[in-house]
């Protein structure tokens, strides 16, 4: 039986871990390497590292931070932010990433999904969707780019199905509406993506306590990702896994 992965997320800006609410008002949370080591020791199944200002500022992902994390943390590391080409993916993999996330670049040129998947295999490619609720799309969900700052008019559920067809190995589904609110994952969004795609879905945005994770799995998530509750030490990864086991979920 497949186990549900628990994944801490490290949003990084200027070489520091940050966190806000609804992708706004980012506050310093600490050193990414120190936090990565803490979460690995607590039993994290993977880590996701997102350079949240790389696309906005046109900067390259911070390779030095990625490399330092990879040297000290021996669980899979997904890295995203500012990834635009096959060459960017190659560079990140060479610096210690196991998987690479793409978001804004895929919206700008969907063919990059096909190219990365063909070059490295679907297992390397995570397509990230930053999603807002919207009355302007058929599903009621819209994809945004540039860290949630730009609306696209693209239906999020249709886009999830398209990148699945193009060769994405996994979808990281971020609810901007739920992000940082600690009110729970957007279960309707998770169900809609799950129904439209066949690849693993990572649910992100809204976790406020250990009790919020099992419902996301019930809604169709293969992995659950959170930041605020781990950074603040409100709860540990062990706490989350214990709550999931109590709810009948299989975790490591």
TrEMBL record:
Keyword Cytoplasm found: yes
Function: IGPS catalyzes the conversion of PRFAR and glutamine to IGP, AICAR and glutamate. The HisF subunit catalyzes the cyclization activity that produces IGP and AICAR from PRFAR using the ammonia provided by the HisH subunit.
Origin species: Agrococcus jejuensis
Catalytic residues, chain numbering: 11, 130
Main location class: cytoplasm
Protein name: Imidazole glycerol phosphate synthase subunit HisF
Enzyme class: lyase
Cellular localization per UniProt: Cytoplasm
Protein encoded by which gene: hisF
UniProt-recorded Gene Ontology molecular function terms: imidazoleglycerol-phosphate synthase activity; lyase activity
Pfam family, one: His_biosynth
Gene3D superfamilies on file: Aldolase class I
Entry's family note: Belongs to the HisA/HisF family.
Keywords for the protein's UniProt record, in alphabetical order: Amino-acid biosynthesis, Cytoplasm, Histidine biosynthesis, Lyase
One Gene Ontology CC term in the entry: cytoplasm
Pathway membership, UniProt: Amino-acid biosynthesis; L-histidine biosynthesis; L-histidine from 5-phospho-alpha-D-ribose 1-diphosphate: step 5/9
Matches recorded under InterPro entries: Aldolase_TIM, His_biosynth, HisF, IGPS_HisA/HisF, RibuloseP-bd_barrel
Record-linked SUPFAM superfamilies: Ribulose-phoshate binding barrel
Subunit structure: Heterodimer of HisH and HisF.
EC number from the UniProt entry: 4.3.2.10
Catalyses which reaction(s): 5-[(5-phospho-1-deoxy-D-ribulos-1-ylimino)methylamino]-1-(5-phospho-beta-D-ribosyl)imidazole-4-carboxamide + L-glutamine = D-erythro-1-(imidazol-4-yl)glycerol 3-phosphate + 5-amino-1-(5-phospho-beta-D-ribosyl)imidazole-4-carboxamide + L-glutamate + H(+)
């Amino acid at each position: 039986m497949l186990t549900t992965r628990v994944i801490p997320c490290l949003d990084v800006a200027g070489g520091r871990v940050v966190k806000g609410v609804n992708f706004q008002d980012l506050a310093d949370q600490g050193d990414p390497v120190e936090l990565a080591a803490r979460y690995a020791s607590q039993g994290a199944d993977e880590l996701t590292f997102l350079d949240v200002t790389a696309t906005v500022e046109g900067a390259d992902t911070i390779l030095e931070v990625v490399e330092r994390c990879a040297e000290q943390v021996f669980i899979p590391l997904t890295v995203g932010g500012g990834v635009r080409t096959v060459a960017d993916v190659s560079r990140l993999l060479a610096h210690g990433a196991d998987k690479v996330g793409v978001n804004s670049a895929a919206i700008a040129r969907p063919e990059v999904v096909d190219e990365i998947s063909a070059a490295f295999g679907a297992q390397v490619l995570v397509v990230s969707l930053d999603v807002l609720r919207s009355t302007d799309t058929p599903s009621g969900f819209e994809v945004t780019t540039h860290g949630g700052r730009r609306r696209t008019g693209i239906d999020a559920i249709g886009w999830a199905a398209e990148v699945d067809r193009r060769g994405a190995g996994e979808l990281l589904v971020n609810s901007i509406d739920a992000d940082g609110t600690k009110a729970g994952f957007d279960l309707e969004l998770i169900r809609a993506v799950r129904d439209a795609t066949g690849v693993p879905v990572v649910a992100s945005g809204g976790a406020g306590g250990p009790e919020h994770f099992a419902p996301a799995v019930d809604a169709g998530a293969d992995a659950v990702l959170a930041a605020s509750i781990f950074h603040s030490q409100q709860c540990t990864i062990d706490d989350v896994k214990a709550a999931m086991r109590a709810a009948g979920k299989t975790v490591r």
